[in-house]
Amino acid sequence: MIYKVYYQENMLQVPVRENTKSMYIEADSVRSVRKKLKDRAFNIEFIQLLEGVHLEYEQAAPYFELEEV
Q1: Would you list the DSSP string of 44-63?
Q2: 3-49 pLDDT, tens digit each
Q3: What do you get for the CA distance between the two ends of the chain, in Å?
């Protein structure tokens, strides 16, 4: 399964929508995504499962790249 992770790079600052970034991770569950990203100092805002038409749409985008974790 592929998940889209919305995050802020700095955990010490107040989250601001304009600073939100995203990455794509392949994992079995939301819990395993959090476990894979535990070492990084990210403020994870939301983890979204991508499937079906939504996944196809994201994969067609030029910025789609699975993060190797």
Answers
A1: EEEEEEE-HHHHHHHHHSTT
A2: 999 999 988 888 888 889 999 999 999 999 999 999 988 999 999 99
A3: 14
